[in-house]
Design brief:
By secondary structure, this protein is an alpha/beta fold. It folds into three domains: 146 residues, 3-Layer(aba) Sandwich (Rossmann fold); 73 residues, no CATH class; 214 residues, Rossmann fold. It has 15 helices and 18 strands. The strands form three sheets. Strands 3-4-2-1-5-6 form a six-stranded mixed sheet.
C-alpha cells in the first residue's frame, strides 16, 4: 500500500460515511484511505431501520461495486473512484486505499487504550511519516486530539450548502429610495380578477428570484415576482391579510413578513413553501390557518398531514404505547397549542368550539417521519415541522412523497438544531431553501419579528 505522493491523502472517519455515503466520490482528484477500524465500525452499525443504518448499507454497496472484478494487486494499487458528475467523467480522479498492513504507530501515553478513535489516529500518525495526511471527521473531539498529535484534521465540508449562514436566501429584496425613478419609465399596470400586476424594467431584476418579495420604501405591502426575463419583470401586488375583513381562519398578519408568508401559503400556484424563523414568529400558526382555510373552506386539499423529526431536546422519554398517531402526540405540542388558538378564534360558544375541535381532528392526520418512505400523498397539505433537524437526503425523501395537487410546507429554526453532526450550513432545511429559490413554483420567507409576547421576545434576544 503505497499511495502516490503527488496527491493529497485523506483519512476518513466512520461518521463521515455515516453522514454522507457519497463522500467516497467527493474528493475530486485526491486519494482516500479507509482504516480497518472504519470498516469494523461500519459493520457494527449496518443493522436496523434507522437512517444511519441505511447510509452504512449504502456505503457497503458502493465499496462492493468498486471491488467488483478487482484483484488483490489492484486493491493494493488503489481502487479508481468515479466522478459523481457525468460531465466530469474524464477529469482526473483519486483512488481508494484500504489499510492492508499493520500501521501501529505508538501513541503518546496521554492517549491510553485501544478505542476506535485512537486506532484511527494511530493509522494517520503512521501515514504522516510518509506523506502529508489530512484526517476528515465530523467528530470535534477527534479533530482536537489529532491537532494535539500534530495531525492536520478537517471537518467534512462537502455537505454544507453555504459557506456562511448569513448568505442564506431570505425571500425579500429591499428596494432603494429611487426605485420608481429607475424603473417607472416603461411601467405597465393592470388588474385581473382582483389581482394587480405591474410589468417594468429594472437593472436589479437580474438578481431577483421567482416568488421573491420586493419591498418598496413607500409601500407597506410589497410585490411578488411572478416572471422575469433579463431585466424585465412581472410583479403582483400582495394581498393585505392584516385587514380585519381579510382574516385567514380568524388570524391576521401582524407584520410584513407574516403577510408575505400568508400570501405564499394561500397561493395555489406555489407548491413548496419554506418558513424560517425563531420561536414566536408565527410559523406554525400561520401555516395551520392557511391549511385549514384551504382544506375546510376552499376544499382545495383533502387532508392536512403533519409530521416532524422525533429528536428529543433532553432525556428521551422511552417507549410510547398506542397507535402511530398516539405515539406522535407528545411531539405535537406546538400543533395542539396552535389548534387551540385557531378553534377558540371562531365564535359559537363552548359547543361550537367542541364541534370545531372534532372537525379539525378528523381532517388533520399526524404521521411519524419513520414511515414516510414509499408513500405518495395526493391533494394533501403536508406540513413538515422542525425541518432543521433533517439531513439533505431525508428532506429529498420527504418532498418526493408529494403527488399531484399536494402542497409541502417546511418550518424550522436553523439556530435550534438537535441532530448530531448537523449545522446551520449543512441542515436539510438550508439545503432546500437554497435549491428551491430558482424554481418558479416555490416560495420562501424568513420571519424575524417575534409576535408571541414581550416576555418571549425579550428572552429570545437576551438569553
Amino acid at each position: 500500500m503505497t499511495p502516490p505522493t503527488d496527491k493529497r491523502l485523506f483519512v476518513l472517519d466512520t461518521n463521515v460515511l455515516m453522514h454522507d455515503p457519497t463522500a467516497l466520490f467527493r474528493f475530486d482528484e485526491h486519494d482516500i484511505l479507509l482504516p480497518m477500524m472504519v470498516l469494523e465500525e461500519l459493520d457494527r452499525a449496518k443493522k436496523g431501520q434507522s437512517e444511519l443504518a441505511r447510509n452504512v448499507r449504502q456505503v457497503s454497496r458502493f465499496l462492493d461495486e468498486l471491488m467488483t472484478d478487482v484483484s488483490q494487486e489492484g486493491i493494493h494499487q488503489g481502487l479508481r473512484l468515479p466522478r459523481l458528475n457525468p460531465r466530469e467523467h474524464d477529469a482526473p480522479s483519486g483512488r481508494l486505499f484500504f489499510q492492508t498492513t499493520p500501521l501501529n504507530e505508538p501513541l503518546p501515553a496521554i492517549l491510553p487504550g485501544h478505542t476506535p478513535d485512537n486506532d484511527i489516529l494511530s493509522v494517520a500518525l503512521a501515514l504522516q511519516r510518509q506523506q502529508a495526511v489530512t484526517l476528515v471527521s465530523k467528530d470535534i473531539n477527534l479533530r482536537i486530539k489529532a491537532a494535539i498529535l500534530g495531525i492536520h484534521a478537517e471537518d467534512y465540508y462537502n455537505d454544507q450548502t453555504l459557506d456562511d449562514v448569513s448568505l442564506l436566501y431570505t425571500g425579500v429584496w429591499q428596494a432603494p429610495e429611487d426605485f420608481w425613478t429607475q424603473s417607472g419609465q416603461d411601467l405597465e399596470s393592470w388588474c385581473d380578477q382582483g389581482r394587480t400586476f405591474y410589468r417594468l424594467r429594472c437593472p436589479d431584476a437580474m438578481h431577483w428570484f421567482p416568488k421573491q418579495c420586493i419591498v418598496l420604501p413607500d409601500d407597506p405591502l410589497g410585490y411578488l415576482v411572478q416572471q422575469r426575463e433579463g431585466d424585465q419583470v412581472l410583479l403582483e401586488r400582495l394581498t393585505d391579510y392584516s385587514l380585519p375583513h381579510q382574516t385567514v381562519w380568524g388570524i391576521t398578519a401582524r407584520n410584513l413578513e407574516q403577510n408575505i408568508a400568508l400570501n405564499l401559503l394561500l397561493n395555489p400556484e406555489v407548491d413548496f413553501v419554506s418558513l424560517l424563523g425563531a420561536a414566536g414568529t408565527g410559523k406554525t400558526l400561520l401555516t395551520l390557518a392557511a391549511a385549514l382555510s384551504q382544506t375546510l373552506d376552499d376544499k382545495r386539499y383533502q387532508h392536512i398531514i403533519v409530521t416532524r423529526v422525533t429528536v428529543p431536546v433532553g432525556e428521551d422519554i422511552g417507549f410510547l404505547p398506542g397507535t402511530e398517531e398516539e405515539k406522535m402526540t407528545p411531539w405535537m405540542g406546538a400543533l395542539m397549542d396552535n389548534l387551540e388558538v385557531l378553534s377558540t378564534s371562531h365564535e359559537g360558544g363552548s359547543w361550537g368550539r367542541a364541534a370545531t375541535q372534532e372537525l379539525l381532528s378528523s381532517r388533520i392526520k399526524i404521521h411519524a417521519l419513520n414511515f414516510m418512505r414509499g408513500r405518495t400523498f395526493l391533494n394533501k397539505f403536508l406540513i413538515l415541522d422542525e425541518a432543521q433537524n433533517l439531513t439533505a437526503k431525508q428532506m429529498k425523501t420527504l418532498i418526493t412523497r408529494a403527488g399531484p395537487g399536494t402542497k409541502v410546507v417546511c418550518l424550522g429554526n436553523i439556530a435550534q438544531i438537535d441532530t448530531p453532526y448537523l449545522t446551520e450550513t449543512s441542515s436539510g432545511l438550508t439545503y432546500v431553501v437554497d435549491r428551491f429559490k430558482h424554481w418558479p413554483f416555490a416560495g420562501h420567507i424568513t420571519l424575524r419579528r417575534g409576535e408571541r409576547s414581550r416576555l418571549a421576545e425579550f428572552a429570545s434576544e437576551q438569553l
